[in-house]
Amino acid sequence: MGEQPIFTCQAHVFHIDPKTKRTWITASTKAISVSFFYDSSRNLYRIISVEGTKAVINSTITPNMTFTQTSQKFGQWSDVRANTVYGLGFASEAELGKFIEKFHEVKEATKNAMAKASTNGSSAVTPVTSANASPITSRSSITQNDSFVSDIAEPPQSASGSINESPQHSISANNNNTITNEHKTVSSNSSTEGGAANSDQQMKYENERLKLALAQSSANAKKWEIELSTLKSNNLRLTSALQESTANVDEWKRQLHSYKEENQRLKVRVQELENAKSGSLSSSEALTDDLRREITLLKSRIESLEKELMNQEIELKAAKVSLKDKNNDPMIKNLSAVFQQFSIHLSDLQNVQKEMDKIFQLHKTT
Prior knowledge:
By secondary structure, this protein is α+β, with helices and mostly antiparallel strands. It has helices at residues 93-120, 127-130, 135-139, 141-150, 157-165, 176-275, 281-322, 330-365; strands at 3-16, 24-26, 32-39, 44-51, 54-60, 68-69, 74-79, 84-89. It is rod-shaped, with a radius of gyration of 46 Å. The termini are far apart.
């Protein structure tokens, strides 16, 4: 439905001097219409005043704004987004009181709308973001607003005189109907100018929304960079573990080869013992004791090696699980090949142990 005027009054408009921050600059040549507008689609309140084709006031109401009455007929408020302070001079204190009452009413409505949107977790546009205030500006609006208000300028002397002498405010009570008709005409013109201002405001809002999206994208890029760094670190750690496992496999291969040679040597000795059955009994018993000790030592070494192989197998399985999403990675293929070699070596060790058991039993029977 767009913006609709909800309150209109007549006042002289002033802007604070941007250089001194203490003196006022006349923004209107006479008392003009100052209107509160409400945008139901964005839940937004604005104060708009247009003289001719120039918008002398275009201020979005935020919960942080404060309207300060500095004299009987003059008041002011600061707008951080516009980086200025607006001043209004009224014909009477009663009209100023009505404006202040409406300002507080709109401010509370804005605050309640923001609180409701925050409670519901909705993504409704807040007045601050709709006014093209950046995230930094919106966070610092409270402090900046207070700094503007603390530098309250004196009411312009020309304002009081011009307001009291203004034709619009010297009309008697008998011309109330004429004033009402003028207000309606001015409100209609203000609505037309407000539509153009609203279009410009919408463009500014879209620009701010794109800025916020860019900031969010930058934050996501940093997060992905951190995740990539973590993955690289994990990849290096797994590569180091794989290299260490490969070195251990080579060592175990050498140990297994030595065990096989020792097993072959024991077989030869058993064969010699079988051939030497007719020899002396004492010599046979001594050889038997030596063979038993060697077999016992070999079995203990084989058990220790099996435990090491089992531990390494568990570590390799854990590494394989952690890298299951990288099936095409050459590291995984190497790890699988190493695991298969472990299984083969473990099987060889078990066969060696069985042969040793057979030798021991054979020797025991002899």
